[in-house]
Design brief:
Protein name: LLM class flavin-dependent oxidoreductase
Structural class: alpha/beta
Radius of gyration: 20 Å
Enzyme class: oxidoreductase
Organism: Streptomyces omiyaensis
Oligomer: single chain
EC number: 1.-.-.-
Helix content: 40-55%
Keywords: Monooxygenase, Oxidoreductase
Strand content: 15-25%
């Protein structure tokens, strides 16, 4: 399994001090967090893509390229690349370039985002979101697998004898995760192509996550890519830890209560009961995360959201120390126990290259 962190890059006031970091401070903090992730032995750092306040990561490839130059092992990913409002030609070229710069340590998660107004900003209609996701990815996939593409669709101008450059490193396109919280159409899309499905279940109860992943696994097998258990699954999660669970709850409560994404709603206790959010001791985080296998089966990637809601950088780096030193080593060992033979490992450039072939478009 791969373990890592993802960020949404929000610029949020610290409710305990009232201070809001500058955009510059937040961007630099995200870089520091990525470097810390490699230092403590995590596998993946993923950044979101947003084009509106209070978020800053509008250019994931710029940030990830900079991080690539300062790391050696960390897999660099996105926690959403907006397949609906980005031109698929630009996605193909930008991420192939990043793949070369990072010596293959790149994959990406495609999604539709969580901000409705972004559609008209980029000349699209939110009511066509699913159709945009389908058409744009079909084109992106062809551009990474065919040297010369002739194409005509609904949402962009036709292409004639077009070659995207640079070509994917070693002829192996970056691995694609299709990210969704609630849309079965996206689970179907991932299954149709035999790609990964990432269910960012941070706001949803286990039953919903179970249904979405089961649908993906069933359709993965239906489309001839292997057994349901061969499907490649990733999950999101949120944690906040201290040695004593009472201290964790006390410290995190003001951040939870005022967070722009879930503050002023359900209580912290209700939210932790109904979603994967875990606020407590490292052992509680271990036990809760291991329980995800009961929900979705053996899976390949677990990402945690840790740097949100106004938490200061110092606190986030402390959280990463706990995650890397006390939590992930246990998770690696325990998830490996009883893992059936034949369950695929997490995808990486080297393993995809070793297959010796590029899946058909």
């Amino acid at each position: 399994m791969q373990f890592g962190i993802f960020t949404v890059g929000d610029v949020t006031p610290d409710p305990t001090t009232g201070r809001t970091p500058t955009e510059h401070e937040r961007i630099k903090a995200m870089v520091a967090i990525a470097l810390k992730a490699e230092e403590v032995g995590l596998d993946v750092f993923a950044t979101g893509e947003h084009h509106n306040p209070p978020f800053v990561p509008s250019s994931p490839t710029t940030m990830l390229g900079y991080i690539a130059a300062r790391t050696e092992k960390l897999i660099l990913s996105t926690s959403t690349t907006l397949i609906t409002t980005n031109d698929p030609v630009k996605i193909a070229e930008d991420y192939a370039m990043l793949q070369h710069l990072a010596d293959g340590r790149v994959d990406l998660m495609l999604g539709r985002g969580n901000t409705g107004p972004v559609y008209p900003w980029f000349g699209q209609d939110i009511r066509q979101g699913i159709d945009l996701a389908k058409e744009n990815y079909a084109l992106l996939r062809r551009m990474w697998r065919e040297d010369v593409v002739d194409w005509e669709g609904t949402f962009r101008t036709p292409l004639q004898a077009f070659t995207s450059t640079p070509r994917p490193l070693d002829g192996v396109p970056p691995f694609v995760w299709h990210g969704s919280i609630r849309s079965p159409e996206i689970a179907e899309q991932a299954a149709f192509y035999g790609d990964g499905f990432f269910h960012n279940n941070i706001f949803w109860p286990a039953d919903h996550t179970r249904r979405m992943v089961r649908l993906y696994r069933r359709r993965f097998a239906h489309h001839g890519h292997g057994r349901p258990e061969d499907a490649v699954v990733g999950l999101g999660g949120q944690v906040f830890m201290r040695k004593n669970s009472q201290d964790a709850v006390r410290e995190f409560r003001p951040y939870f209560d005022n967070a722009p994404v879930y503050g002023h709603g359900p209580s912290l206790e209700d939210f932790t009961e109904q979603t994967p959010l875990t606020v407590g001791s490292p052992q509680q985080v271990i036990e809760r995360t291991l329980s995800f296998r009961e929900t979705v089966g053996d899976y390949q990637r677990q990402l945690f959201l840790m740097d949100h809601a106004g938490l200061p950088l110092k606190t986030v780096l402390e959280q990463l120390d706990i995650l890397g030193e006390e939590v992930v080593p246990v998770l690696r060992r325990e998830f490996a126990k009883g893992r059936p033979a034949g369950v695929p490992g997490a995808p990486a450039h080297a393993s995809l290259r070793a297959l010796g072939e590029v899946p058909a478009a």
